[in-house]
Design a protein that fits this description.
Elements lengths: L3 E5 L2 E5 L8 H7 L18 E7 L5 E7 L12 E3 L12 H8 L9 H12 L28 H10 L8 H5 L10 E5 L2 E5 L3 H10 L4 E3 L5 H7 L6 E4 L9 E3 L3 E5 L4 H8 L4 H6 L6 H4 L4 H7 L6 H7 L3 E6 L2 E6 L4 E3 L2 E2 L6 E8 L5 E7 L10 E10 L2 E10 L6 E2 L1 H7 L6 H12 L12 H21 L5
Parallel strand pairs: 1-5, 7-9, 8-9
Antiparallel strand pairs: 1-2, 3-4, 3-5, 6-7, 10-11, 11-16, 12-13, 12-16, 14-15, 17-18, 18-19, 19-20
Helix pairs in contact: 2-4, 13-14, 14-15
The chain binds flavin-adenine dinucleotide (FAD) and FE2/S2 (inorganic) cluster (FES) (2 copies).
One FE2/S2 (inorganic) cluster (FES) binds next to loops.
Length: 472
């Protein structure tokens, strides 16, 4: 059996006897690195946060905070991980630790290593720059970290007191060097096989050979299943590192987004060029989760309450599926066939998502959830609209949470197309939207509430757009 090779806190480690479902967090703690804690084991609390290195476009290294409880150790072969133990020590606190300590940002301390890690990622973020509004620290860096006893004010104070890394900061210096890259791996163990293939062809061959294989991308769904449902796969095929799944290509006709790019990477690289995605990204989970979650994984789970389908349906996206037989392109509106069912065969991978260009000029995303941040939606609505001379020339509305699959609001779209974009027309269309889908009662919301939210969403979109000056 192959060893898993890691760089851990700057030191090379070659780890024997790794099993496919051993999480990074469990392994770290088994090695005595107990700074990283387990709070929830499902990506909700951030107590397990560690830093994962990834390459920057400039050839250096970016530190990203990720949930150690959701990462499979075998899926990190070749990569570099830094834990809280690798940031500072009692004798020489890291600046982040120092600020948290002197500002009273820690009481019981259970959450503190996770906060230190997420804050360190932000401290070293290459784009962070001090400006007239402070030190450039974006507080969303700690949205995925929960503290039960200190209260967030002193933690925020610590974040906002941080300066830039000092001249000669050894970690900052090391980030100028290239990041170690993912390496292929094949493990055969008594608990199953784990493959990190070196090519797409190899991945597709494995999927063709093993119809029961579990595809692994960022692991933010799979890690939860492994930890809480004790799910196990006979064969795991990790794909997120494959170059063909990491494309971001603009052509005159479409934009292609690789299914294996993390949402954070997409957010950075798109830099607001797709306003609807730009509006959606911050509403998806937390920075810790977005640093791992992929579009391929979101569409792969085919959840009716996944957030990307309403957005991508509004953008008229197409899913690029690839197998050993070649590629095919499926409109997302035809991709879902039933509750967590899709047209994707077991031998197929989602390689990319294509968004036709030009984009509709007006768009909006609405996520109705119990909490404004880091929550699963009760209802989600994506809208993309074009007007010509004040008349709706095209509109697409994607809905999540109101049927067994994500759906297009086709009746509402029909009620709007060719009509003037006026309050009276929108009020009528909103009544139509209220009746779309078959919303259910569950622990998140009642069916009646979901239907009411649909109606309100279109009214809200209209008012927001008219307020910002869309011509009617
Ligand atoms: C704390 C927390 C908060 C969350 N918040 C949200 C949220 O706000 N909105 C939301 O929509 N989701 C949310 N999720 C769910 C999850 O983060 C998303 O579904 C995410 O997009 C999954 O991507 P991944 O790469 O991590 O998937 P993985 O866990 O790696 O895989 C998920 C599934 O997709 C399949 N898969 C992965 N990649 C491919 C591919 N290329 N081709 C075919 N199949 C593939 C896998 O086999 C697996 O069945 C949350 C999860 C957690 C733990
Ligand atoms: S232990 Fe709570 S996010 Fe990992
Ligand atoms: S200091 Fe106790 S949970 Fe945060």
């Amino acid at each position: 059996m192959m060893n898993v090779d890691l760089t851990l806190n700057g030191q090379p480690r070659s780890i024997p006897d790794v099993l496919p479902h051993t999480t990074l967090l469990n392994w770290l703690r088994s090695q005595g690195l107990t700074g990283s804690k387990e709070g929830c084991a499902e990506g909700e609390c951030g107590a397990c946060a560690v830093l994962l290195s990834r390459p920057t476009a400039e050839g250096g290294t970016r530190l990203e905070s990720v949930n150690g409880c959701l990462l499979m150790l075998a899926g990190l072969n070749g990569q570099e991980v830094r834990t809280v133990e690798g940031l500072g020590s009692v004798a020489a606190l890291h600046p982040v630790q120092h600020e948290l300590a002197v500002r009273g940002g820690s009481q019981c301390g259970y959450c503190t290593p996770g906060f230190v890690v997420s804050m360190a990622a932000e401290y070293y973020r290459p784009e962070r720059q001090a400006g007239e509004h402070g030190n450039g620290f974006e507080l969303e860096a700690i949205h995925g970290n929960l503290c039960r006893c200190t209260g967030y004010r002193p933690i925020r104070d610590a974040a906002q007191a941080l300066g830039q890394p000092a001249e000669g900061d050894t970690l900052a210096e090391s980030l100028k060097q290239p990041s170690p890259l993912p390496r292929p791996l094949a493990l055969t163990t008594p608990s199953g096989e784990f493959h990190r293939p070196s090519t797409l062809a190899e991945a597709l061959h494995l999927l063709g050979e093993h119809p029961d294989a579990r595809i692994l991308a960022g692991g933010t769904d799979w890690g939860v299943d492994v930890n809480l449902k004790h799910a196990r796969a006979a064969v795991t095929v990790a794909v997120e590192h494959l170059p063909e799944l990491n494309t971001l290509v603009w052509t005159p006709d479409y934009l292609e987004l690789g299914a294996g790019l993390s949402l954070s990477e997409l957010e950075r690289r798109l830099a607001g060029q797709v306003p609807l995605l730009h509006e959606w990204f911050p509403q998806f989970a937390s920075r810790l989760i977005r640093n791992r979650a992929t579009l391929g994984g979101n569409l792969g789970t085919a959840s009716p309450i996944g957030d990307s389908p309403p957005v991508l349906l509004a953008l008229d996206a197409r899913v690029i599926l690839v197998s050993g037989e070649g590629e095919r392109e499926v409109p997302l509106s035809e991709y879902f066939t039933g509750y967590r069912q899709t047209v994707r065969s077991l031998a197929e991978l989602i390689r990319a998502v294509r968004i036709p260009l030009p984009l509709a000029p007006v768009s909006g995303f609405y996520k109705i959830a119990k909490r404004p941040l880091d929550d699963i939606s009760s209802v989600a609505v994506g809208i993309a609209l074009s007007l010509e001379g004040g008349v709706v020339s095209s509109v697409r509305i994607g809905l999540g949470g109101v049927a067994a699959t994500p759906i297009r609001a086709l009746k509402t779209e029909a009620a709007l197309i060719g009509q003037p974009w006026t309050s009276a027309v929108v009020r009528l269309a909103a009544r139509v939207l209220k009746a779309e889908g078959t919303p259910l009662d569950d622990h998140r919301a009642s069916g009646a509430y979901r239907a009411a939210m649909l109606e309100q969403t279109l009214l809200k979109f209209f008012h927001e757009q008219t307020e910002v000056g869309v011509r009617v």
